[in-house]
## 1
Amino acid sequence: MNKNSKLVEFVKQDYLSRRQARLSLERQWQLNINFIMGNQYSYLASNGSIREDEKQYFWQEKEVFNHIAPLIETRISKITSNTPNVTVVPASADEDDLESAKLSKEILKSVANRLNLSDILKTATTWSEICGTVFYKVMWNTNSGKMVATDENGNAIREGDVQVEVVTPFEIFPDNLSTERLEDVKSLIYARAVDVDDIKNQWNVDVESEKVYSFSLDTNIGNLGGLGYDAHINKIANVEMNNHCVVIERYERASKNHPNGRLTIVAGDKLLFDGDLPYINDELNMRTFPFVKQVSNYMPGNFFGVSVVDRLIPLQRAYNAVRNHKHEYFNRAVLNVLAVEDGSVDTDALEVDGLSPGKVLVYRQGSKIPEVIQNPKLSLDFDAEEERLLNEFKTVSGVSDMMSDSYAQYTNLSGVALQLLAEQDNARLSNAIDSSKLATKTIAKFILRLYKQFAVVPRLLKITGQNNTVEMFYWNKNEICSDDVVFDTSSDLYDSLGQKRTMLLDLIKQGLMYDEDGHFSEYTRKKCLDLLGFGMWENNVDIHSLQINRAKEENLATLKNEKLEILPIDDHKIHIDEHTAFILSANIKDKANYKQILKTLLAHIEEHKKLLKGEENGELGTTK
């Protein structure tokens, strides 16, 4: 056995042992998926397999009243709606760093639009809520992006671009299930089923197909329903995938023997790749795993998180039992249960026809008349138990009436009380929301670091600014100077858009938005309209912003030794402030033409001051 064969065998055995150690968790995830889909009479058998409970009697009611699915859908909606946008903090106050941070922010926006990142986050959150954990794989796709050249065979060479994929917990195998953080895992296996033709195209290696099973939808018929009818629901079933093979990617962190980490990829009995970790995506400019973890609820001492579905399953089983027992009682009340003396009537005909309206019931002379057995009155305990279970659903899931109901039932509460209730609802989902926010920020950092590593060819980026202005940027990896990603709002979990608008209106009513002269300035009015959602109302042009942009363009022009010109339409006060801020904050002392820049700007500021003084004295400001 050669060296490669030993490595392949080692990776495959490592994968099998990790899968066996995690088998019980996989069974629980499968059970959760079944309950979400409505297959709620399934259970985990003693041997670890998932089985389904059969009817004991033909008349038994076994209908499903799924309350888990809408609760999980509500949680997913709440979590995804509370994930804010991200921005990039500049490395310093230097003008170059400010522009680099602005460019990095626009790059993230462009990637989010191109990948439809909001849908990716929603899909991942769905897996996280059902199984307790989900992963994102942030990688560089060399076959993506614009074509920049062709090789000797005429194949297109593309500039490459970032790709983000959702990885289910079924495909991730850590070396230690007791390690809580992904950053503390020493080695990680990512295993998935791939078509052998795709393996050939990507690695140029021929691999034989093998037996690979995956989850698929199936229909469960005959087990469910009630008296006189059958019901069907969807369930998870194992299906064999044709022409597929398991690709095992084994990631190792940096060590003494492998200072850049190690990535080994195996499929079948073939070694597809063995080398350094491909991406420099660590905080310390080191190579690490390309995965980001998101959990629903943290569990101390466990790598994988816990799903709320685990806790809801016993409640759902109890609720189904209560509702079905009530329906069985109603069946007996409506269809009646007869007590018949043996041989007194034709029981075969009675079983077929029942007691239909107007039926003539013939019984043997001298025998006892058949009588209907009266059912005892339905106990109020059934209703009390049903109501208790419904309330317990909300308690366990963290979803209250305000989040789950589509109508307002708190009409007798004040606005402050309703706001407090809304804050309490949000607080109960804080663990899942915080994990989603942290994952979003980490993904953004990984994206910027991948561009900084691979964006060698100049790229074109179109930025749409205020008042529909369009800026075109050519950039490469050298333009990305900072990957310090933060959320672009200082608001926490409880600050919704509606609450911000209400607070703004309250501030205006209290007079806190007026200046020292008691005036509501044009600039403040524009900002208030932006926050209220009317920033482009009647296509108003923000003159103040345009003046600031023109002053910034003049600042950049001085760096190129271009001549500055004052126009009659310039707002001298705004220009003076912007030029002064540029001199004080920008690190222009390191520029070779620092003295010339300073001289030009000071002379320009002095000219603005003269014209401003002339306007204040009633004179007409002119320029030569």
## 2
Amino acid sequence: MELPAYLPAPGSPEEREAFLALQPQLQTMFEEHYPDPRNPRTVVVLPGLSLDRETLAKLVGAQQYEERQLSMLMWLRLPRARVIFLTSAPVADSVVDYYLGMLPGVPHGHARRRLVLLSCNDTSDENLTRKILKRPRLVQRIREAIVDPSVTHLTAFNTTTDEVTLAVQLGIPLYGCDPALNEWGTKSGSRRIFASAGVSHPAGVEGLRDADDASGAVAWLRARDPSLRRVVLKLEEGFGGEGNAVLDLPRGERIDRDLARELIETRLRPEAGQSPGEYLQSYARLGGIVESWIEGEHKTSPSVQMRVTPSRELEVISTHDQVLGGASGQVFLGSTFPAHNDYREMLVREGRSVGEALAKQGVLGRFAVDFVTTREADGSHRAYALEINLRKGGTTLPFQMLQFLTAGKVEDTTGEFRTPLGDPRCYYATDNLVSAAYQTLTPEDLLDILVDHRLHFDATRQEGVVFHLMGALSTYGKLGLVSIAPTAEQAEAQYRRVVALLDHESRTWPTWRGFEKPLT
């Protein structure tokens, strides 16, 4: 594919027109070509996080998060599928071989011939899409790797106007939410969707511009509920809970706008560790909301993952219980699948209501809805919707790996995952397994440890451990993994075993004949 003589200017009406002209091709692909697994198709994978630099700076190993979407290599299990995988820096051969080695029933060499890896060789903190757009020769190499544009689409972690520009320059449709609809993935937009869908969500005020607006919202919420003990401020486009800040309110005291402003400036506790002043600078730049904190002794933080297909059908993909950390338990660390049976059906019902409201707005592709649940005095559970993530997220990779590795599916009636033989499978997954001692290991060491202790995913038993974020291991001591087992308890126990093993192996080094010497 040669670059056309004329490309519309980024962000121009002509580019928008070209983008909208490409998008209908998705429906044709998904309805006419994709149902037959033997038909050719190409997926251009854009795994970078298209977030602002300030947000990316808070994420340890942000560039290595591109490796989370190496799960897309599992598409190569289809005999005529091609994957073009784009990255900031080259992915280590050992990491690529690791994923290709897990493909069921496909020779490694056959899959490798259908994989194209292209890199910007740019480790700066700019987002991946902009790195690519700066390099027209790289764009041309991507176009040359596309054999048939009529069966090719671009998929991204999240979609902005940059992804629209790249899709137009490549001449292929973008399978993801139109950036013109991204407001529904902001904190304010989420609250408006919840209200329109009739889904319970915390009391709050959206569309706030700065600390003064937030002060007024805090005063209003306290006047509305004099027993309110805590509120949370959220940046419109915060990522993984890092854009949240908690404010404890003094009991039994009337709070007006002036007192609320004083409390915000002195007592605010941002999750990302900034000072109140630094957080408020971000708040003034990005805007946000203020919400009442949901109280309760027995709270969980589940999510529902869904997608709207190019045929405009809503699919509920999976439910999860999120594993959260941070100063006040709002930072995403990982997830367990499926969500607890006590409230799984309720999550699906509430999530579907949100998904239908989003579909009416024209949203396309994957998204997730985060909830908090509380257990009532009678033992029942109540769910409050918190936010919509119009993108792939931390629950996308682990579920894709489970689905691709086992060829199983979720049962509509129970929400449980079953292999083709009818066996149940659960997982415990994390993106944030971190230890300074892990910096002593390379990805090759990690694979040696896995194989030596028989923890590597076993296709025969359809259980074991799959690692990701391996590129962040030696630099940041950071790693991700998915532990797959027949039950949730077995998956977590296997995860704990792996952590204990890595802690041991990274703090010792072998000398001879099995003796070990502790690292000093």
## 3
Amino acid sequence: MSRILLIGSPNSGKSLLFNRLTGLSQKVANFPGITVDVGVGKLLDVPDTQLVDFPGTYSLQPISAEEQVAVAQFEKALEDDNVEQVLCVIDATRLEKSLYFTLQVIRDCEKHGKPVAVLANMIDVLDRHDLAFDTAGLSEAVGVPVLPVSARSGKGVQAIVDVVRHHRTDAGRVPGNRYLDSPDELLRGTAHQLAHRFGPKGDVLVRSQTRLDGFFLHSLTGGIAFFIIMFLLFQSIFTWSAPAMDAVEAALGWLADLIVPHLGQGLVSDFTADALFGGIGAFLVFVPQIFVLTFIVGLLEDSGYMARAALICHKPLRIFGLTGKSFVPMLSGVACAIPGIYAARAIDSPRKRLLTYMAIPLMPCSARLPVYSLLIAAFIPATTTLGGLVGMQGLAMFGIYFFGMVCALLVTGLISRTSKDHYTDLPFVLELPPYRVPGLEPLLRNSWNRSRHFVVKAGKIIFTVTVVIWVLGYFPNYGADLGESWLGHMGRLIEPLFTPLGLDWRYGVAIFTSFLAREVFVGTLGTIFGIEGADENMVPLVDHIQASGMGLGSGLALLVFFAIALQCVSTLAILAKEAESRALAIKMFVGYFLFAYVAALLTFNIVSLFTG
């Protein structure tokens, strides 16, 4: 199958254009470092052709690990005989910066005999401000077709398809050795001249961005805006998603009441009630929170605010040995640690990248979200103020998220001051992308896909663990006495480890299984309590926990434990791969478990001291 390469600088709209050309839902965001892997999809209008999307890079002379991935893969792909053409995406609103990279791409394509087409994206922004861009003149000057396009509106997409279909004609012929022997210094000067001759005239876009930056980056208003935005982010996770969570819980309860009575008495009925509705159903209740979290974070990314937040955070993060660029991977870790670790490739400094790796697992990821939500719902009253906009449970969620972030900063600060290593350091340089109005449809689609992916990925693990837990808890006495089941005997073997936290063997088993994935904790408890009380409250797991006699100290200790412990096998595997060190992953796993246990023990004893 023939292949077309898609390459461009960060924030050029390349990934959104890739989605429009292929119909795939690759994540799109407006800050450097979001595309950290090579994406492949078939062109919708040319199904026998693959489009290959490379990570964004500013230059073919890479600095960061992410750029090294992009450049290495691109150079390798140019040697592939199946590659028939290269599409280079540029930001028409920032022409000089984009053209330097474009000329480097044309030079490499001349060496390998590959046709090139330049896609001048964001043309809709220029049209909206009545700014002219001479694409025909630029095309003649560089010797390759330059197409005005808008990935957001779809303008010019058909012209791209036409160029792909007819790339062997004169419109897509191999560039004629204009830059074959040109050094980078000469290309940089040429890019400046071309941008001045053919680019849009005027500073409307710059002045508009400067006004907004004057507010969002101001020492006073910028800081206030940052804390308000972060506070609203965490409030949205719990308080604003509550109606959807209630709807899912009601639907599952209705479905259980509809199905279970018709199954009669016996093995199938017990499995359906205990394992499916008790275990998996208890987990599904919290999926709306993952959707809301992904949507709000995507809103911040696409608007261009995320890069500003990174700049705001650079000075305080520097105290803890990190950089402003660490903010993006760390906040990505709020959704999932794995893309956060991938996004750390964009950090130029190897030393700060290592410290960011250590911080990301402590960020409160979406896999922890069901655990947090369950325990907060069980121990924090659901009272609200300000007309329902602010709730106690939302404040508790903000508090536990803030606690995880503080732990991450304390760990990196301690390590940066005490450890001696061979990693080099580099200065902090960050591009501020233009402010843009996020597209609602891509955000909703991405949130839906993210939630669905989380359910499918976690669902497989939860289903497997649920079946195993149910079998161990149901036999050999068919659920008559959970304490005398195989699971009960196994749980009592590990119970002494968790007794100092005020937890019995049931919670010990749930913690133990959560090392496969944090969210399994909810499914395991749902299955265990489902076996104990299958005739009532099959889905509302909160009721079972409140009736189990677990005290406030134990509940808060569990929250602290899950906020710190590194309990995800997938995260450990990716961490070992990205850091190229299994030893680092093992040390972090053991160190964070001991840290979590000691912190949970202190929490239990302090709370017990004050509450009796």
## 4
Amino acid sequence: MAQEATKTQRVPSEASPSLFEPDSRGIARLRETIERSVRYLLSLQEPEGYWIAELEADASLESDYIFYLYLLGKAAPARIAKLANTIRREQRPDGGWSIYAGGPSELNATVKGYFALKLAGDNPEAAHMVRARVRALALGGMEATNSYTRFYFALAGKIPWSMVPAMPPELILLPRWFFINLYEMSSWTRGIVVPLTLLYALKPRWPLPSTADAQELFSTPSRRIVSLQPDSQAFTWRNFFLAADRLFKLHESLPLKPFRQWAIRRASRWILNHLERSEGLGAIFPAMLNAILALAALGFPPDHPLTARERDYLSEFEIEDEDSIRLQPCLPPVWDTSIAMASLAEAGLPTNHPALLRSAQWLLENQVAGPGDWQVKNPSVDPAGWAFEFRNDFYPDVDDSAFVLMALQRVAYPDAPRMKLAIEKGLAWIVSMQNRDGGWGAFDKNNDCAILTRVPFADHNAMIDPSTPDLAARVLECMGRFGYRSSHPAVRRAVQYLRREQTPEGAWYGRWGVNYIYGTSGVLRALEAVGLEKEDFSQHAAEWLRSVQNLDGGFGESIASYDDPALKGKGESTASQTAWGLIGLLAAGSPSEPAVARAVQYLLDDQNADGTWDENLWTGTGFPRVFYLKYHLYRTSFPLYALARYRNLLARHVQFGG
């Protein structure tokens, strides 16, 4: 969680009023603010046409990376020292580590941070290590960590395998018609778990330094693993799966396992197949790390061409400075590019501007045309989506694809037939991914088997990929921008879903961004796009946005709102969340209303001289309550879009006497 240095150089203003005034001076300042951001954003474009900025995560990644390097025998002292520097810098005063900027210490991050520093050679009796150990024990100790954390410790021989939920490779043999099978799990869980099943079966011995023990991290003599304790009720799904876990472990102790070799072969083939047409398994850090370890367990040494290729992909996530290395969880070029394009187009960049043409060309070249996991539940449509990363062909996602289509729509691409075909196929793909409840998930259709959230290794809080309001809103907005209206059956079902999901206050939950401000803004944009912005439930949402606007004119929401819904819409103002709030208000109301003027003024006053905004708090979500993100381009792209949108609507408002 490396924090950016706070920039103090602001755009000069002469005692700016609390309300933006759209007079000649105000409009001139607005234009200058937009132009500064346009220049800055254009300066970041890569020669190939895409945009990409850092995707920041918590120090657990550096901790896992140290562990991984030791297991593979690649723990070069200089690299370990730089990774350890990053971990130490992120330690909180109470001794623990948080999973987001400004958040409280979290058990798994704290246990991992402490152990990684022991591997790096820190003295366990050093003051910072004692504080870490005390904090880990106060948070519940090893007994209360999640399954994946304990799996790594078992893999290193530091705790017994009995403390880990069973992950037998036979899971991959379950037929697809069975109510529980591999493809009822979310895409990211598949990528994480399939390699773990091989490691669970093979149990390779990778001894770590004897000085790096973990016994002092247990808080009680009984060492009872919290997640493996049954419910008090006689029958619950949790108890059912815990009973199954005991049976799997009994099976594991048998000398004869009739399906084991078949399962290992199937799981191995699945991994090898999914390593093709992708830059690492799932192109995300945990799945890639697990896959490399699984390859090593299968007999591929660290320097084998296949393993070395996968290690190289993972090393691309490193950001190295003079004295530190930090890790990104993945690389977001498609996402960053589509948002940057939309913002620049809204800011008035000509539709044939070279920057937009280059980015459109790059996006067209990266449209996924090959098969993927999503086809298991949606086989009747041609592949035509986009992935989040550079290459991740098995996992195009609905959110990226919808944003890409909206970005491409605003480009006058010279090869019009090619553009038309790409858009038509992409639009057909995202519409076909609609779930039975009317919403959309991210990577799969109807991936909503809720009982899977009760299996013992589901404590990463991301076992399934159900419909969420923010994703439904993104697709609905995209459909609206391509001419779908409220009478279309798919739109009608999506609107019904959103009406069911609206909270009593009028807000919508944000699964992939923090949180209700993100979700509500997205839904309001979607409703505007399909002509429903004046409906009562839309206006109810706009009223909620007005009610949570901060006194400084900005909007902010703490990540803690995922744990405590009473905090929805509450928090320190940030540039990206202010932009989201402003965009939502503009979708449902008038550009001349006071709440809009205050939000505009906040963004004008808060801009840096280089065209950026500071944003030290995080506003991106990986897995609610487990993993959060800071998209470094959000603090520029979204404020630019919001201010440009305001300017354009204001001009139309004045023109038509609104």
